[in-house]
Sequence to fold (775 residues):
Amino acid sequence: MKTFTLTILIFLQSLVCFAQRDPSREILIFFKEGVTLITKPVNGKLVKTATIKSNELKTKLQKAGIEESMLEIAMPRFKQADT
Amino acid sequence: MKVTDTTQIIQLDMTKLFRLKVPEGKLRKEFIEKLRLMPEVLYAEENGTVAPLAVPSDTDYGSQWSLNNPVNPGADIHAEAAWDIFTGNPNNIIAIIDGGADINHEDLNAKIAEADTGFGWDGHGIHVAGIAAAESNNTQGISGVDWQARILAKRIDNLSDDADTYQAIIDAVNFSPNVRVLNHSWGTLFSNQAPGRYSTTIAQAFAYAYKANRVSVAAMGNHQITHNGTISYPAGFNNVIAVGSTNDEDIIATSSVQGANIDIAAPGVGILSTFTGGGYSFQSGTSMASPHVAGIASLLKGYRPNLANDDIENIIKISADKVGNDPYLNGFNNVMGHGRVNAAEALTLLQQNTLNQFTATGGTVASSTGNYSNVFYATSGLAPGTYIVKRHEVTKAVTFPSSFCDIVGAWGRGVGSIGYSVASPNYGEGFCEVIPGTQTSTGATLRTYVYQMYNVLGQSLGYYPTTPANVTFAYTVLGKTNTFAISGPDSFCDNAANYSVSNIPEAGTTINWTATGNTTFSGSTTGNTVTIVNNTLEQIVLTATIVTCGVTHTITKNILVGMPPVAAITGDQFATTGVLYGCFIQEYPEATAYEWFVTNGDATVYHDNTNWIDVMFEHDGYYIIQVKISTPCGDVWSEKLYVNVSEENQFRTITYSSFPNPVDSEITIQKIITRNKKRIKQIVQKNLALFC
Fold:
């Protein structure tokens, strides 16, 4: 019963996750400068996340209507060493 | 930076790629326009997904006409003739970047190197995988183009966006160096499902595969009717073999996208292949055409593993059949590209010709542009970004080795070249090409480009990727090489013999003959065959001076004229009665038979029909051994060998002694032969000087 319940929960969670993503509403941006990655705890796990380091860039993005919270890493598995 | 095939690959650090979700009620275009104005942004583009490039078909064309067409013979990829030459290399892996494969399918399971779990896109990837490399010659189901290659089934149908697609392609390349070929039977879509969305992110993955010396094959797309003139991606990326679809009459499919970016065409209408549920189905589309080419690329790489990715692409183009309804200009048209692929002809070109890969360094600037801006993403020592550049066309005339004749083709190779193309953005791929119209039977002029870069202040940053004097041109020449040889006997007796030159490569070749010694010619001293006359016992040199392809070659042959002297029989002069004895004679030129004679006593001969003999003497006495040698010039006899045969010879011993011992500057060696403890012969050599 526990296993069944867990499976249902994972299934529902995955539906929610997929439901949150819609590439047709997204933009991919490559920042050559001004943005850095930091590792911080989220829900008890360490995850990499983007931080706008440059205040100048932060201001520009805000003027363009882009908040830092709207950005997420596109390729969390990417390792430069693999290429 | 990864080292693959000894090449260091420069790629962008994609950890700096971010995804931005556009708020409801806003348009992506507005954000992209603002982002592109920010100097901190290298690029900003719409995110998106990809879709398979098959169209449903319920047309029954019978079994696999694309491999062997019974209705319209020849309107296929000539697979059977290709398999007579080569069926594949089991070390090769074809990456099927698609909707996954069925690892339990009876015609695929033994060929799967690795597969992502499950499959999507209604079995599209299963169908594509089977065309390229289904289990073959196994008395069930269908045959793949490459019988031996294994399959890496990489799923992109269940990925969320371009960033994931980038990662999937990188992962496929990095799965193994044996992933030689990647098939892409899919295309990017705009959010309204229209084709033709260029993705800078995905393009970089294809650049990575190219720089790693892999072959990327992609479907042209099936929107010729609905979106005429729209280039599909990845087929539109640089360094990808873009494939259109033909039917069983060698006519381009009406849906197959046409345009300048098409490279080649392959069967893609009503193609039978593996499918869901362990079954088989007919499918149509450039999706089905592409894996035919991927299979051929894998066959070529397996047949000649040293081929570079550009070698494979060029051989596929050169060997294609110029079929269809549209005329070809310089071997190309926008409908069929370089024609419909011919696997047999591609392998035959490799089988019957020599392929040599060369590099040449240093070039001269042939032309230069004015200043303009160009985007560079992956240049060693240069931060990614937009630069003010002056582009220089760098050329170099190269001469093919004189051994080459009958050139089939010559082309540049990006991998191994240090020099760029004119592309912007530039992803750091090497570039070299043979300038159209410059190739002759003896050479060609190569071209690449270097960029003189300036920062925003107008200060020079130097040349990238290198200076004109330091560029490297990597190029390949395919053709027949001259392996001339003079055919004819190594010796002749006392009259005349005919000689000719074999492997003459082309008409128009001239040959002039000369010879040393007392040799004369009976008839002409020109032409492919001559008759030489000589009645003297001597060694002569016959020379043929060949002029072909504008190059002079001189080849010679040493010939023994007349009857050479017969060497002495080599053997011991002592033998024991009743004990096997052997001796031999040096092989005689042109000998046709050896006949041995043992006289002066009874003897049993065990072997006597070659240039050595085994014999057992029956009693004591002096035996005589002689051999008669038959030659085209008649019989010749050896000198006689006298053999002292005695039972007592079994007690005969030979010892050597030397003195002084230890030795200083001179030594004396004695050979002492004794029989029954009685010294019968003594040979003394004295005063041997020592040189240590």
